TrEMBL record:
GO terms for molecular function: gamma-tubulin binding; microtubule minus-end binding. Belongs to the TUBGCP family. Keywords: Cytoplasm, Cytoskeleton, Microtubule. One of its GO terms (biological process) is mitotic cell cycle. Residues 1-136 form the Gamma tubulin complex component C-terminal domain. GO terms for cellular component: gamma-tubulin complex; microtubule; spindle pole. It is found in: Cytoplasm, Cytoskeleton, Microtubule organizing center. Its main location: cytoplasm. This is Gamma-tubulin complex component. It holds the Pfam family GCP_C_terminal.
Amino acid sequence: MMHFLQNFEYFIQNDVIDPNWNILMSQINKAESLEELISKHNDFLDRTLKDCMLTHSKLVESFSSIINQCYSFPNEVMKNIKSNNINKLTKTIEIFHDVIINSVSSFVFLLYGKNGDHFEHNMIFLVEKLDFNYFYSNLNVDMASLNPALDSGL
C-alpha cells in the first residue's frame, strides 16, 4: 500500500504538477493580455487534470478503490487487534494483501492499456515506479477478469 501511495504522490507532484507549473510560469511571463493569461491558466488546468488521470473515469474508479482499501485496512486491523483474535487478524491481512495486489495490478494494466499503447506522455513514469521489478507484469492473472474495462478500451 505504501509503495503505491508514495509513488503515486511522487508522480503527481514531480512528474505532473511541477513541470506543468514551470510551463505556466514561463507562459505567464510572456503573456501580453489578461485574456492570454487566462487562456494559459486554463491550459495549465486542463493539462494537469489530464496528466493526473482525472479525466479517465476507469482510472479514477480504480484509484478510488485502492484508496478506499488503504483507508479500510487499518480500521479492520485495529478491530481484530482489539478482539485479540490472531487468526482473524492474520486472515484479514491476507485478504487485504490479495485485494490490494489485484487492485494495483488492475490499475497498472489500465495504465498500460489493452495493447500497452494507451500511455499519456508521462504515465510511463508512473508505471515504471509501480512496476519497477515487473511484479505486476509477471503476475499470472487474467487481465479481463481483473478489470472488465480492459475489454472495452480506455
